[in-house]
Automatic annotation (TrEMBL):
GO terms for biological process: fatty acid metabolic process. It comes from Bacillus spizizenii (strain DSM 15029 / JCM 12233 / NBRC 101239 / NRRL B-23049 / TU-B-10) (Bacillus subtilis subsp. spizizenii). Residues 11-348 form the AMP-dependent synthetase/ligase domain. CDD domains: AFD_YhfT-like (cd17633). It comes from the Bacteria. This is Acyl-CoA synthase. Pfam families: AMP-binding, AMP-binding_C. SUPFAM superfamilies: Acetyl-CoA synthetase-like. Residues 395-466 form the AMP-binding enzyme C-terminal domain. The keyword Ligase applies. The keyword RNA-binding does not apply.
Length: 481
């Protein structure tokens, strides 16, 4: 079984149902199932060495992107999305790390590949060949086979490639059905880049379940508002920064929409404001990582009852908090978060694989309360050690983001001769250091309050909408403070 194996049965049962809808085109499940099979057979028919085990895709959000991604998965290949925003040097680096056999791109982006040794196929050429390819049934694929390769930079900024198996995402699909209650009846809006696994997963899981994917070419608050008002959208995938932008343009209609938000960094104040203004919205947020996939989630009721929590474990996930000695912590005691899950990744490319025990950690720290709800302190390797005291940047950022005048904020540690490290806050907002110090004093121990403050017009973000902490640290090291 693969992440695409339901397409043919959905096409037989509901051939006229729309699978994917964009601003300029749409496709039914009857045509989608055929197109994916043709794409897979085209990939499988390519002569060596071009017949690819690893297929890189350098394209913006589009029906073609999803077609190539799904076709590669159905063929037994590993799809490697390449960000159109990366420089030529960054594209070359990722293609080298991935050891991709070919990269499919449009003429517009081909200039990003001039220095790459990877074989390039232009989109127009491959689409013409795919239209002539067979739609015959495909061979059975081992569910443990990797179908997706992504990149994560962690705290260092240096890219690391990881792979996910068909089985891991199919296990995740059960969470989408069981814990988020998403089904074939849903019309799902994907406003963010498919380079983010959150939005890519939202699209691919919807197609697996038989729903309709509404795909934007790129995120625009105004365009997202138009789709929400024009179409009968029932599910919206988003991240906190996007949700805040949508709130500012009053994007939400007076109809029930389920919001699936990635990140335990969605500030409590933002959630409260959203719920108060649009009480009919159903707010779900979850904590997860590239390596672990889904870990915990909060329902609308959970967010009201446990507003500071990252939620409870998904139905197929186990969590343990362990101290430095490897012993299990008591409720409320902070330690390292270990997860046992069938959704974990297959491993890093040319690197480590998950432990045989099934338990795994990405070095996030936190605790569990008496009811089994997880609270995240921050990442161990991002922890600032100030005069022997531990400061988690994420905790300070949550306090800063709860201030109405702050648009965005990042806290990082920089070396200090006396203290070892000090916390520096980089803030985008209409406020000043004096006001923010007073705000933090109400909510944080004195030693956690940043010792230096830098104000900026914007903060660098990753493709998933999170702060690019390594870029912020590099900027500070280059003389911003």
């Amino acid at each position: 079984m693969t992440i695409t194996h339901t397409y043919s049965s959905i096409a037989e049962k509901s051939p006229g149902r729309v699978a994917i809808q964009t601003e300029s085109e749409q496709i039914t499940y009857r045509d989608w199932a055929q197109l994916v099979s043709q794409t897979a057979n085209w990939l499988r028919s390519r002569p060596q060495p071009s017949m690819s085990n690893r297929v890189a895709i350098l394209l913006p959000n589009s029906l073609a992107f999803l077609q190539l991604f799904a076709g590669a998965a159905a063929a037994g290949c590993t799809a490697v999305p390449i960000d159109t925003r990366w420089s030529a040097a960054e594209c070359k680096e990722r293609l080298s790390i991935s050891d991709a056999d070919l990269v499919i791109t449009s003429a517009f982006f081909k200039n990003k590949l001039t220095d790459s040794k990877t074989h390039v196929v232009l989109l127009d050429h491959c689409m013409a060949d795919i239209s002539e390819a067979s739609a015959a049934l495909l061979p059975t694929i081992n569910p443990e086979h990797p179908f997706y390769m992504g990149f994560t930079s962690g705290s260092t900024g240096k890219p690391k490639a990881f792979t996910r198996s068909h089985r891991s995402w199919m296990e995740s699909f059960t969470c989408t059905e069981t814990d988020f209650s998403i089904s074939s009846d849903d019309k799902v809006l994907i406003p963010g880049t498919l380079m983010s696994s959150h939005f890519l997963y939202g699209a691919v899981s919807t197609l697996f379940l038989g729903g309709t994917v509404c795909l934007l070419k790129k995120f625009s608050p105004v365009q997202t508002k138009e789709w929400l008002s024009r179409e009968s959208i029932s599910v919206l995938y988003t991240v906190p920064t996007m949700t805040d932008a949508l709130t500012r343009v009053t994007a939400f209609p007076n109809s029930p929409i389920k919001i699936i938000s990635s990140g335990a960094d969605w500030p409590e104040e933002s959630k409260k404001k959203l719920a108060a203004t649009w009480p009919h919205l159903k707010l779900y947020d979850f904590y997860g990582t590239s390596e672990l996939s889904f870990v915990t989630y909060s329902t609308p009721e959970d967010s009201k009852r446990k507003p500071h929590s990252a939620g409870r474990p998904f139905h197929n996930v186990q969590i343990e908090i362990r101290n430095a000695a490897g012993e299990r912590c008591q409720p409320g005691e902070i330690g390292k978060i270990f997860v046992k899950s069938p959704m974990r990744f297959s491993g890093y490319v040319n690197g480590s694989a998950p432990h045989e025990s099934g338990w795994m950690t990405v070095d996030d720290m936190g605790c569990i309360d008496e009811d089994g709800f997880l609270y995240i302190s921050g990442r161990e390797n991002g922890m600032i050690v100030y005069g022997g005291l531990n400061i988690f940047p994420e905790e300070v950022e949550r306090v800063l983001l709860s201030c109405a005048e702050v648009e965005n904020a990042a806290v990082v540690g920089i070396p200090d001769e006396y203290w070892g490290e000090i916390a520096v806050a980089v803030v985008h907002g209409n406020t000043d250091a004096r006001k923010l110090k007073a705000w933090c004093k109400q909510k944080l121990a004195a030693y956690k309050i940043p010792k230096k403050w830098v104000f900026t017009d914007s903060l660098p973000e990753t493709s998933s909408g999170k702060i690019a902490r390594s870029s912020v640290r590099k900027w500070l090291e280059e003389g911003a403070v």
